[in-house]
TrEMBL record, chain A:
<feature type="transmembrane region" description="Helical">
    <location>
        <begin position="231"/>
        <end position="262"/>
    </location>
</feature>
<dbReference type="InterPro" id="IPR013525">
    <property type="entry name" value="ABC2_TM"/>
</dbReference>
<feature type="transmembrane region" description="Helical">
    <location>
        <begin position="129"/>
        <end position="152"/>
    </location>
</feature>
<dbReference type="Pfam" id="PF01061">
    <property type="entry name" value="ABC2_membrane"/>
</dbReference>
<keyword id="KW-0046">Antibiotic resistance</keyword>
<protein>
    <recommendedName>
        <fullName>Transport permease protein</fullName>
    </recommendedName>
</protein>
<keyword id="KW-0812">Transmembrane</keyword>
<feature type="domain" description="ABC transmembrane type-2">
    <location>
        <begin position="40"/>
        <end position="269"/>
    </location>
</feature>
<dbReference type="GO" id="GO:0046677">
    <property type="term" value="P:response to antibiotic"/>
</dbReference>
UniProtKB/TrEMBL annotation, chain B:
<keyword id="KW-0812">Transmembrane</keyword>
<keyword id="KW-0046">Antibiotic resistance</keyword>
<keyword id="KW-0472">Membrane</keyword>
<keyword id="KW-1003">Cell membrane</keyword>
<dbReference type="InterPro" id="IPR051784">
    <property type="entry name" value="Nod_factor_ABC_transporter"/>
</dbReference>
<dbReference type="GO" id="GO:0140359">
    <property type="term" value="F:ABC-type transporter activity"/>
</dbReference>
<comment type="similarity">
    <text>Belongs to the ABC-2 integral membrane protein family.</text>
</comment>
<dbReference type="InterPro" id="IPR000412">
    <property type="entry name" value="ABC_2_transport"/>
</dbReference>
<feature type="transmembrane region" description="Helical">
    <location>
        <begin position="111"/>
        <end position="135"/>
    </location>
</feature>
């Protein structure tokens, strides 16, 4: 009896063990291999942003011609491509950390089983996040290759944009995980996907935010995807400044805040 | 034994509507708010840079596309998890199987429900579009009929597919290989003539393109790309063939 | 018409590929009867039930339900059947009451009639206070009662119950039996499958024992026990019995009518259990536990197949 009382608060503090985080990731790799046709699904996940790029960037781009933003002229595809990269970094990771994460701790009771072992909630959260980001990074890397091949960015731009897209993944993954610990049921996910879709449409993805009325422009500048798009677009186009640092700082704050809230909520929900 | 006063197909529709009473608030976003947001972002936001397409402003040009794609997505989306779930987890179709309801009633009741549900979204969208000045012809009133046909042509074969598979990961494939490419390349956002000649037949093969083409002809008051009978006939083939396949699939799955 | 059996089967066969689930059975169920299929999992009970429910097409043989052909008149037959499946298939997104009203509409009942029957049946299965609630929070026993209520919504001539109490706790089972017994008293014809002997003894006027797709015995519970077993059974457990029950059985030869060594115990079949036990002690055997009891259907089954029923 005494040991349980001593042991449970001790689990909430202390160092994060890389080994245990690795074990959490390993479970996901195993689940991946066992799922039917899962790799086909993974592969098609990469095509989604490419299809958007071809349809809106190239197809609609042919109707648009060149676009001038902040005094620089570029093809519409070159304007849209970095935004699609940021969006794909966001959606891939969010799908893993919200939908799948919620399913695992609410229904599959996977986490209950994991936390009955020496693995601690923070390690579980970090493990799940790293897994989601690694998956997302594979998509974004492939997308960057496509962009370079289509002449939408330089190899140097792509190299610079890759770590930024990983940061975007971490930021949305951490916040997504925190959100899914607050979800009451699947109906909340409908709300979230509406919000996600609104971000996708209005974060300077398809047209510059400067076009919007001032109130909307300011409102958009508070939301996260705007910062992700601006950071990635600046790096792809080779326009980097103090603003880029600001965007990066915003995303870093999301990582820290999201992780903190997620592991706190998980501890409270699962270690009682 | 009271004589049957309600046709079994309508009894199946009755179940779907009873369920829908609990879902409509959530679905109002996906079936109505999202298309309007899409219209604002692409139609107005990007439209500013596009200027005009085929002689009309870009917003007016994509309105019929977004309209048809709304109907298409509801039809496709609602015939996947819902159908598989009613076989695999809820076993609602097994419950119906023990009553005088026949597989053909199950399929038709489901399709009838989808038509009603998607038409509600179509009508709401049309009303909003009037305020955007996106309709240019009284023929616009024919778009709900076109959408009804498109819904049947899409939902019926997808229902057959959902009744055949055993794992929902196939739906991700369906969404990514059929739904998203159809939405993006079948004439919703830019004319299919812009596509490379090699892939153009894929767009023509998609029921979506025929729906978009007819809706666009209606809202802009012009002729369709191909003879109207071809477009209608093509969608009818998908609808009737889909129903036949779905009834077969239901019968087989309920036999086990 | 009155004498016509509700279910009539001759040489009924159901095959799935190479596997023969039902291997040529003959059946007759009369109106007002409570008829049971007893047997272990895989005996062919559920396959038979599905053919009777007109959900599965017989491979060969003759089958008539309510005097009609299940293949040709499936819809007309199903209109007069009530089916309680082995797996609950209640609609989790509908309320308890809506589950009944929606189902009633499948039979073509009017809205007002379906509401009237729903309320009446909720009363009957004692779920009136849960009418407006969801299905999910109901206990297993409540869900099963709701499924039975649903099966009664069309006032069926014949009710099919596939393992009605499997997975329920003892209280829930007894409540369910009580409700089914009441149904039986009203004259409703019940056909049920079970692998519980006590359930068959409680509910069935007549039953068949199935094994390997065949009917291996038929009769009332009492007559089956009388035919295939003795009035009493003595159960003996020996401290080292796990390995030596066969040896003990040899030493018990001649005690009672028959000796059956099981892996964990030795059964002695005798019409007078106490006399048999006295003989056991007289032979100097010292079992660690002794139980003298009445014969049950389990003993019938053991005698017929040489194995225990639940495996």
């Amino acid at each position: 009896m005494l040991t349980t009382f001593v042991a449970s608060p001790a689990r909430a503090v202390g160092r994060v063990s890389p080994g245990r985080v690795g074990a959490v990731i390993n479970r996901n790799v195993g689940a991946l291999r066992s799922g039917p046709s899962y790799w086909v699904v993974l592969l098609s996940g990469f095509f989604e942003p490419v299809l958007y790029l071809l349809s809106i960037g190239v197809g609609v781009g042919a109707l648009v011609g060149d676009i001038t933003v902040g005094g620089r002229s570029m093809s519409y595809a070159a304007f849209v491509a970095p935004a699609m990269l940021a969006v794909s970094a966001m959606t891939g990771v969010l799908a893993e950390t919200t939908f799948n994460f919620f399913h695992k701790f609410k229904y599959a009771k996977t986490f209950e089983a994991v936390l009955a072992t020496p693995v601690r909630p923070i390690e579980l959260a970090v493990g799940e996040l790293v897994w989601a980001v690694v998956r997302g990074a594979v998509y974004t890397a492939a997308f960057l290759v496509v962009m370079v091949a289509m002449g939408l960015t330089t190899p140097g731009g792509a190299l610079a944009a890759f770590p930024a897209s990983v940061l975007v993944g971490l930021a949305f993954g951490a916040v997504g995980m925190a959100i899914s610990t607050l979800m009451r049921g699947w109906q909340d996910f409908d709300l979230m996907s509406v919000g996600q879709f609104a971000l996708f449409l209005f974060s300077g993805t398809f047209s510059p935010v400067q076009d919007y009325p001032l109130v909307m422009e300011v409102l958009i500048q508070v939301t996260p995807l705007y910062h992700a798009v601006e950071l990635v677009r600046g790096l792809c186009l080779g326009v980097v400044g103090l603003g880029s640092l600001g965007h990066a700082a915003y995303l870093a704050a999301m990582v820290v805040g999201g992780l903190w809230l997620a592991s706190r909520r998980l501890t409270r929900m699962l270690c009682v | 034994m009271t004589a049957g006063t309600l046709h079994p197909t309508l009894a199946v529709l009755n179940r779907q509507l009873t369920l829908y009473r609990r879902l409509w608030q959530a679905s109002i976003f996906s079936s109505f708010v999202l298309p309007v947001l899409f219209l604002i972002s692409i139609g107005i936001g990007v439209g500013r840079y596009v200027g005009s397409v085929e002689g009309v402003d870009y917003l007016s040009w994509i309105v019929p596309g977004v309209l048809a794609s709304t109907a298409f997505q509801i039809a496709l989306g609602e015939s996947t998890y819902a159908v598989l779930g009613d076989f695999k987890y809820v076993r609602a179709y097994h419950a119906m199987r023990a009553t005088p309801v026949r597989p053909v009633d199950m399929v038709c009741g489901h399709l009838l429900y989808l038509v009603l549900r998607a038409e509600a979204a179509v009508l709401a969208f049309l009303v909003v579009v009037v305020f955007f000045g996106g309709l240019h012809s009284p023929w616009s009133l024919a778009t709900p009929v076109v959408c009804g046909l498109l819904i049947a042509a899409t939902a019926a074969p997808v229902t057959a597919f959902a009744a055949r598979i055993d794992h929902d990961s196939y739906f991700s494939l369906l969404f990514r290989l059929v739904m998203i490419p159809s939405t993006l390349f079948a004439g919703v956002f830019f004319p299919v003539e812009q596509l490379p000649a090699v892939v153009r037949p894929l767009a023509y093969a998609s029921p979506m393109w025929h729906g978009v083409e007819m809706c666009r002809a209606a809202t802009l008051g012009r002729a369709t790309a191909w003879p109207l009978a071809v477009h209608v006939g093509y969608l009818l083939v998908w609808a009737v063939g889909g129903v036949a396949l779905a009834v077969l699939a239901f019968r087989r799955r309920l036999e086990d | 018409m009155a004498d016509q059996p509700l279910i009539f089967a001759r040489d009924l066969v159901k095959r799935f590929g190479d596997f023969t689930a039902v291997d040529g059975i003959d059946l007759e169920v009369a109106p007002g009867e409570a008829f049971g299929f007893l047997g272990p999992n895989g005996a062919g009970k559920s396959s038979t039930m599905r053919m009777i429910g007109c959900v599965s097409v017989p491979t060969s043989g003759e089958l008539r339900i309510l005097g009609m052909d299940p293949v040709r008149d499936g819809t007309a037959i199903r209109a007069r059947l009530g089916v309680c499946p082995q797996l609950d298939n209640l609609d989790p997104d509908l309320t308890v009451r809506e589950n009944l009203t929606t189902y009633a509409r499948y039979f073509g009942l009017s809205r007002s009639e379906s509401h009237r029957r729903a309320d009446e049946l909720l009363e009957f299965v004692r779920l009136s206070d849960r009418a407006k609630g969801k299905v999910e929070p109901l206990s297993g026993g409540m869900k099963r009662r709701l499924t039975i209520a649903r099966a009664l919504v069309n006032e069926p001539d014949l009710v099919l119950l596939d393992e009605p109490t499997t997975g329920l706790d003892p209280q829930a089972r007894h409540l369910l039996w009580e409700r089914l017994f009441r149904l039986k008293q009203r004259g409703t014809t019940l056909v049920l499958t079970t692998h519980y002997m006590d359930e068959a003894e409680q509910l069935c006027d007549r039953l068949v024992v199935m094994d390997g797709g065949k009917i291996i015995a038929e009769g009332s519970p009492r007559s089956l026990i009388e035919t295939y077993s003795t009035a009493e059974v003595v159960e003996l457990r020996f401290p080292d019995g796990l390995d030596f029950n066969a040896d003990y059985a040899a030493k018990l030869a001649g005690v009672g009518e028959r000796i059956d060594p099981l892996p964990d115990r030795v059964l002695v079949y005798a019409d007078d259990g106490d006399a048999a036990l006295a003989e056991v002690h007289r032979r100097g055997l010292t079992p660690s536990t002794v139980l003298v009891r009445r014969s049950t259907l389990e003993d019938v089954f053991l005698q017929l197949t040489g194995r225990t029923l639940v495996d």
